[in-house]
Amino acid sequence: MKIDRRSFLSFVIGGAAGTALSPLPWKLTDDIAIWSQNWPWTPVPQKGEVSYLNSTCTLCPGGCGILVRKVGERVVKLEGMEGHPVNDGGLCTLGLAGTQLLYGPTRVKTPLKKVNGAWRKISWNAAIAEIVEKLSDLRSKGLPHTVACISGSDRGTVPELFNRFLTVYGSPNFMRTSSIQDSYELTLFLTQGVRAMAGFDVANADFILSFGSGLIEGWESPVYMFRAKSTLRENGGRMDQIEPRLSKTAAKSDKWIAISPGTEGALALGLAHVIIKEKLYNKKFVDTYTSGFEAHKKLVIDGYPPDIVSKITGVDTATITALAKDFARARKPLAICGRGKGYIPGSLQEFLAIHTLNALVGNINQTGGIWAVPEPDYISWPEVEMDKIASNGLQQERVDGAGSKAYPYARYLLGRLPEVINSSQDSPIQVLFVTTANPMYAMPDTQAVAKAFEKIPFVVSFSSFLDETAVNADLILPNHVFLERYEDVPAAHGFPKPIIGLARPVIEPLFNTQHSGDVIIQIANELGGPIADAFPWDSYDACLEETLADKWDALVEDGYWSDEVFSAADWSTAFETDSAKFEFTNEDIESLPRYNPLKAKGDEAHYPLVLIPYDSMRLASGHIGSPPFLIKSVEDYILTANDVLVEVNPATANEYGLKDGKYAFLRTPKGNARVKVRVFDGIMPGLVAIPRGLGHTAFGRFLAGKGVHYNALIGPVEDPASGHDAAWGIRAKLSKT
Amino acid sequence: MSTNEKVNEVSAETTEQDDSAAGPIILFFIFGLVVSLVIGWVVFPKILYSRKQQPVAFNHALHNELVDEGCESCHFFREDGSYSGVPKLAQCIDCHEEIQGESAEEQKFVEEYVAKEREVPWLVYSRQPDCVFFSHAAHVKLAGMDCVTCHGPIGESESLKVYEENRISGYSRDIWGKNIAGFKRNTWDRMKMDDCAECHRKNNVNQNSVQTHKGGCFVCHR
Questions:
Q1: pTM of the prediction?
Q2: Which residue range(s) make up the domain with B177?
Q3: A37 and B131 in contact by Cβ < 8 A?
Q4: Which of A84, A149, A198, A650 has the fewest CB atoms below 10 angstroms from its CB?
């Protein structure tokens, strides 16, 4: 028998026929189909019991209650808590993306120490021993005041533990991240004599006059403001937005009044002029419960008639007059300020000018008005006993100058810190703690801030993430993220009632992290003596439970405690000034430099345009970097690929030969960047607008390198009245590439 | 010789050759057929599945005698109506915190898993791809079906059978069925989509989504 080509073909054909008659091809097809639907990298949700735990979001100062949905031990979703006084079931995009911060790749997983520029893993004990050695050394040299702390907040047990530690150690240099909180606190203090937080009863107002505040773009407590704005509109209320750019808030308003940036205070004084001249102010309130009215009247009548104000602000006189009349005639008018999300403190005189509008219409501590909400007072730890070193240290002036002769009213002036350090031979700060803050990203003039931080010999970051500040620190002591730890959230910014939220661990910590509160207690214990005595608690959790005392059970049960029946103090008792009245002006206010619109830095000849920033709910611009979900949601007219688009008016685009969608060079006195141009009717000519929250260098591949960092292009402008940063923009040049 | 004659001659030769090779060619055909049939029916199923032992030999029959509520004693519905599936250690611990009997498997279970608080990595015969949405509550509570209908008399078994894992798809052999051709004798012999559909058609189950009233794929694949 000869085996040739034919017999081979015959064998193959027989084989094919046999295969077709066997289950092999059909079964294989089915299996491959299933295999192709189950790639190993396709995320498959965990199976298990579904549970909900209540907690509080700490990603911004909004204080929203959240429900954490878990499947088995996996956190799968964050939802707004129904019935919560602040957010009632709502949650913002950042909160919704919170799980990505928990499981995402930007976490610091273990304490890290920088050795020759590279990170090395280090044990908690070794890390704490290193800090203790540095701190003991400085104390023995009599330099305790060279230790400082930058914290995102000064309220609540964790910031208070840091503050208490610095105090008993001997340093006055506890600093809070600046924001419009600073300006509103000063405003309430100077005019009403109270140390209080500003609350806004937006929901019950009937006319909101917003001087650039992004009511639906993250101003104060974002979700509360969304809801309040909706209620206002449902009740037929009106909302006017005064700002140079058609923001989302402006687009949703009844009227958008474009104004030359930085002149909002002048417009407020102009409105006061009309209201007083036309005798439209609330006589009952002004006559009985205020003082300094005559002086204020003289100021606005003489200095701010509509025609002059029109020249300063670019708003025509008819609009000014009509706006003033409408505002004063509304039943519950409310004027608010603080641009965008309110992360820049702004000009104190501007705040005073706008706040006095509320006084003129008598809408202070009234339904639909601005309320002075008492600062939380549940933390009542025993006084610390200080040794001589600590007492001496505390007598030193604060390094940021807050409370000094030059800046008598400010409590913290973090904005001045880089300048102070850069202008000294040796850094006045030897050891810096940074907690819930990312100053190297969030402070203006990034280069100057980096230079200052470089000069500080030892920077300790308590960040859960590898943010810009952590990357440049010497030691990172990673905190648990908010879903892994207990913490009290003592207030919701802008919410008109006292409320305490409780963030609580919904899962075991994923990594080798520790609660910053525990770390501080441990450092104190190891330092010994009076410092250890000031921290009698075994752990942070014990400290928190003891501090919250009778509120603890309610907090654990409901996730929050609120003073439901709270109403702001009656006019007769509300004001703790010398006159016991609302003071339009007084000796303290008189001693401040007068209102003058602050100019943008830079030489007009070289920089013909003005760069202003804007905020978006889709970009986190505080100490947290936007998680991937957020970046995904950013509109393509803000960010395309890695390019940021800057907005210019068609007239400006024509003048400088700029084309929509094309690259351009943006130059400011502080830096330059390659950007794309978006020609946009909704911005005044002569301006360039850029979003905040982009241009990160840290936070990994989902965020780093996307867009341009606004703070790298601008520098701070010191407000002559408060010392805080009041920069609203900077001069700029935009040219074709 | 004319051209026609040439052609005839060549074709005659060819016919002769064909005749002589026809036998072996058929033989090769049959050989190929038999080899592929043996591969397809016998060898292929053996290669396709890897055989795995369960981490602990579990006796369903023994446990079934000791509990009051049958299968649902351990495979229970949670308060929210969702189905707990294979028990977690937390349920076993109620009885097995300490060693109860003299079984070596129980000792292994207590020492390896209970004492170390490790979940037992059970191999689940009925695990389906994640793209299938199946509600136990709808079938057991609403339709009143027996566990046996789909899962077979596993509750009466004294040991767990070998888990045969499909090397390509990663799922158990029990989904396609023991029979490689896909034939079945009992309702529980297979768990493919066609088997779901067969029962749904037979019982005239609403083929549409309750929420959207739309029929088709998204009732189960959602």
A1: 0.89
A2: 124-219
A3: yes
A4: A650
